[in-house]
Amino acid sequence: MRLTIDDVRSRFKKHFNNAEGSVYASPGRINLIGEHTDYNGGFVFPGAVQQGMIAEIKPNGTRTVRAYSIDLKDYDEFNIDDEKGPNASHFRYVFGVVREMMKLGVPVEGFDTAFAGDVPLGAGMSSSAALESCFAFALNDLFGDNKIDKMTLAKVGQATEHNYLGCKCGIMDQFASVHGKAGYLMRLDCRSGEFEYFPWNPQGYKLVLVNSCVKHELVGSPYNDRRQSCENVVAAIAKRHEGIETLRDCTWEMLEEVKAECSEEDIRRATYAIGETDRVLAVCDALQKGDYETVGQMMYETHAGLSQDYEVSCEELDYLNDIAKDCGVTGSRIMGGGFGGCTINLVEDALYGPFVETVKTKYKEKYGKEPIIIDVVIGDGSRKLA
Ligand code: GLA
User: Which of 44, 169, 248 to mutate to test ligand 1, by most ligand atoms within 8 A of the CB atom?
Assistant: First the structure.
């Protein structure tokens, strides 16, 4: 069941004395290709989904935020001038956004809020970025006269992950949540910040997510280690070449030069990341020609790289990828940070039914639970609902 504005309104009324505030929404995202490239200065190719976070917010004239998480039935309060903030992560996201907006000079004041979401948690669809972007967008509207531009709002969410949750994520998730547009994917150059909307209306194909239901948690996961590996290689190359800031600036020849002085593991990580930027460009090219076979082939290559070189897959995700291949699915790969969550699959219309049946049956036979199938519809980014 999709979450509606009324679900949030009724809970807000109940918890805050029948009051009514303003309501905002911000989505989760999919990513067609370009994984672990954002913090390496490469390209990503995400789109917003229809599932997201909805928050009702009403300024309360104090310095205190009173927050209710509808999904977790949990309530907490914090003072916005406090440095430490709440402990529970679902409230830390809100606290972090408040603090980061204040750093930008937005005169945030206390507010009452109730929020809920229908992005599956831990599925690699960026439920946390949806929450951050929802509050960044809302506080800009409520307290900041909408003076902060969208990319900066996305960076507020990213800084929240870095400074309050300890996850050194890239910009993709928050970017997609804020900038999403129904019917369009977005190709973002994470080095320059430039992006382009690409219509997504594949004739004869569907995009479908298969959630392994292996929960993925980026906070405290080896995600930060992957980033560190890439930075180690960049540091080695930068000793020999000027102007090298990320793997995006590195060529295959440069990588070859530092092979002896980096660990074999770091070199494998960098090999994947450099190759992935090329694959995003190949996919954009193929899409413009309507060549879905090449798009699919790149997706399988990404999966192999993420699994063998970047090592962010798990047995269940590899199994889902194998099933897709056996069924003749055009493209399939792990989506998002990895370590669990979903695969994203590009499936011909005629194969959709048989694939969904097969993947459900086979996965259940092996792991005792059915994977969850999510049909992708590309939706809008952060917005005010009421
Ligand atoms: C997570 C991070 C993103 C990105 C992806 C992998 O979703 O939040 O910044 O690095 O993993 O592509």
Answer: 169
